Amino acid sequence: MQYATITGWGKCVPPATLTNQDLSTFIETSDEWIKSRTGISQRHISHVNTSELASLAAKRALAAAGIDGSELDMIILATASPDTLIPNIASTVQANIGATCAAFDINAACSGFLYGLGLASSQIKSGQSRKVLVIGAERLSFYLDWSRRETAVLFGDGAGAVVVEASDIQGGVLGYELSNDPEGREILKANFGSAMDRFSADSLDFFIQFEGQEIFKRAINGMNKLSVKVLDKCGIDKDAVDLVIPHQANERIIDTLVSKMKIPKEKAFVNIANYGNTSAATIPIAICDALEKGLIKPGQTILSCAFGAGLTSAALLFKWGERVTPIASCDAELPPCEQTGIELVKEAVNYFCNR
User: Fold this and answer.
1) CA distance 80 to 96
2) Among 85, 162, 198, 297, which has the minimal tally of Cβ within 10 Å of its Cβ?
3) Of 69, 16, 89, 40, which is closest to residue 336 (Cα–Cα)?
């Protein structure tokens, strides 16, 4: 039997940041208000398209795994903010890394990376694929109405990627659960798509719409339910989990989730302060950060869970392999950014806040 093991990892975060103090210059908020409610101190704003963030994260993950793009059997790119709907941007990444394989996008919003990782593990366990690249990449700043405090303070841009390879050594992805709650479709959405009236100027006025309290409740219930389910399915007690890497949506949600599951808070990895909510990119970025901090160790059992628009939810349990350092590094970088975060969003801020 083949096991699906993470062998490479990489992230790409654009250099420009937008701090809580920056936000307070054009909407009614403050650093204390945002931190106390979300745990966020800053978020990154991209000067390039989502596919460029994804491509660099992919190149770094391939280098960490010590493989070339031409060796891949499949690319799965999770995003709700692609450069283009047609063609998919997995094909753009494929061209940028020199791959010749299946490549497609999936949109499960913030749960997208775990959806992709689950699908990749099934491809490998079935014998259909041996090396799969899974990416989570978002440019959510594109969707924001900067006059709406409830969403303006939450979201950021970034990308993360992992290489998953077939292995004869027992471990890797132990199990996963995916679900969706369609009753919650309307509480987190952006009205962008073919349902728009393309002949109306108003149709271009799309933005993320958000019902915070309802999402908070459903998110905790959804992640808790699937986390318990995947632990039971794998026959692993919650006390045997060494590290929890949850979707980074809100620090309060993470605290409430681990408390409800009776998992010590110190086992939960949290890095939302530096990035905000980068949707499908939060978990792969968190994996990279946890490795950089030495928090992921060989043989650890790791639980990851997420929720997103749809309302999607996912939980995945995996056992880390023996290697926690990259085989090689990647010298590629994003094009230089000559603007600050507040300069990058200035046009959108003027549009939404001064009308």
Assistant:
1) 20
2) 198
3) 16
Q: Could you tell me the pLDDT band of residue 195, with boundaries at 50, 70 and 90?
A: confident
pLDDT of 173-192, one tens digit each? Answer: 999 999 999 888 887 878 78
* Helix%, strand%, coil% for the chain, nearest 5: 40, 25, 35
Pick the catalytic residue from 20, 107, 180, 277: 277
Q: What is the tens place of the pLDDT at every residue in 122-168? A: 999 999 999 999 999 999 999 999 999 999 999 999 999 999 999 99
pLDDT at 189: 79
Neighbours of 112 (CB within 10 A): 32
Phi-psi region of 148 (alpha: psi -120 to 50; beta: other; left: phi over 0): beta
- Compute CA distances 17 → 38, 235, 275, 337, whole Å: 17, 43, 9, 11
User: CB under 8 Å to 333, separation ≥6 — which residues?
Assistant: 56
Q: Is 277 a catalytic residue?
A: yes
What lies within 8 Å, CB to CB, of 123 at 6+ separation is 73, 74, 129, 132
Q: How far apart are CA 132 and CA 99, in angstroms?
A: 11
Check residue 13 and give its pLDDT: 98
Q: How far is CA 258 from CA 56, 99, 191, 293, in A?
A: 33, 39, 33, 21
CA atoms within 13 A of residue 272's CA, in its CB half-sphere:
27
User: 229: how many CB neighbours lie within 10 A of its CB?
Assistant: 15
247 in catalytic set: yes
Whole-structure pTM value = 0.96
Residue among 20, 47, 49, 110 flagged as catalytic? 110
Q: How far is residue 303's CA from residue 265's CA, in Å, rounded to a whole number?
A: 13
